[in-house]
Input
Amino acid sequence: MVNKADAVVIGGGVIGNSIAYYLAKYGVDTLLIERKDLAAGTSGACDGFIFLQSKKPGFDLRLALESTRLYENLADELSYDIEYRKCGGMILIETEEQLKAIIELVDGQRKTGLDVKLMRIPQELEPILSGHIIGATHSPLDAQVNPFKVVLGFAQGAKRKGAQILTHMEVQAIRTRTVRGELKVDSVITERGEIKTNTVINAAGVHAPVIAKMVGLDLPIIPRRGQVLVTEPLPDLVTSLLVDAEYITLKLAPDHRGTDGLGLGFTLEQTASGNLLIGSTREFVGYDRRTTYHGIKAITQNVLRIAPALKEVNIIRSFAGLRPYTPDGLPILGKLRGVEGFIVAAGHEGDGIALAPITGKLIAELVVKGKPSISLDEFGLERFK
Amino acid sequence: MDDEVIICRCEEVTKGEILKAIEQGAKTITGIKIRTRAGMGLCQGRTCGRLIARLLAERTAQVLEEIPPATVRPPVRATKMENLVTSHGE
Ligand SMILES: Cc1cc2nc3c(=O)[nH]c(=O)nc-3n(C[C@H](O)[C@H](O)[C@H](O)COP(=O)(O)OP(=O)(O)OC[C@H]3O[C@@H](n4cnc5c(N)ncnc54)[C@H](O)[C@@H]3O)c2cc1C
Ligand code: FES
Output
């Protein structure tokens, strides 16, 4: 096994693989370590929305817009079909009260440069929608990918550019040494040996706090479960990504729990293989990745309210993933004070797929140039102090 | 068995594709699923699961009996949505 690398990335999800790819592209000798398999964590149990309309106007949205730009050429760049489709997306409006709140949101988003408009008869574009829906926002920029393929595509691209990826290997400890009174990263300890390095990037998703603890630091990331239903494959039925207004409320007010603690917000997409993915919940239940009868029933009721015509459609399975939640719903990105060479890129909550390319690019720039092309100051851990 | 043989009928995945996934690092049934969609079909891997386990055992030097089955989450059988809302209990 290798015993040294310029940079060690911990975690083989979408974030870790994106970082490994961009680092390798810059010529950095990179090693990625994953304790299970690629996409075995949250990145293999999620939807594939690159949804701009759910982002807070301002900084969050700006980063998402940059990421969308990178996604447009990613399949070509990686020579890998990630099932990217610029399908457009809608926020469905069911009451006058929601309409008012959404108009305000759209205003803010337009000012940040998002192309979004209000539709009065969304049924014209998506005939499966129930007649009681009084309107929807629509943005043609919202897009879709297959998250598994994004992970595997980044991994393959990273390897082609010289990165090494080791799976089924767990990071057990990180050694530091003191240089002129300052703590510095020295090596990463795995079950198969020690790897010397000056730079460690913690991309361990919901497990990022465990990795940070290895150098004595605390991260405020906790798992937030999302349950999703999968239907049988169907002929083309829906083009756009669909969410309801409650979903937006949950996203923009991260501590909002929704009714009965399920945090139910409606999402629906049709994947390239024809299955509908219908979500989802936002629950704080530790590391439990099971789906529940209660959750499945609530999601089904929700979708039949929005698209009653689906009642005859078969659900073939369900799954649940753990969103890496932070108190303000935004990721923690950048160097951590106190240990030189220790970088965090975790806590992307429900946006890790959308933000993966820009996260990888900016973290690689941080490592190579010391300063990323878009400042990460607002994503620092210090904001929680 | 040549590489063209279909192992997962629901998703039309061939033996060749499964072997390629193993080459790319898949060591579990879930690893195969992520890379090829084998096991994601209507039958939820009931038909192809054993065949995939056997290929894994053969190619990755694992003991067949020790390869864990894929995680199965409800509903265990395809269920119409209208029946999911009216059903009671687990
Ligand atoms: C139901 C649901 C729907 C979602 N829908 C969307 C969506 O539509 N669009 C979107 O943008 N985002 C979505 N998300 C969010 C997105 O899935 C996550 O933000 C993203 O996958 C996080 O990626 P990650 O790489 O940080 O974490 P992960 O994918 O969890 O990767 C971390 C990896 O680190 C590994 N690891 C942990 N500890 C160690 C160790 N000690 N040594 C080595 N490896 C270790 C783990 O095994 C894991 O593979 C959704 C999430 C859920 C749950
Ligand atoms: S044969 Fe593979 S899922 Fe049915």
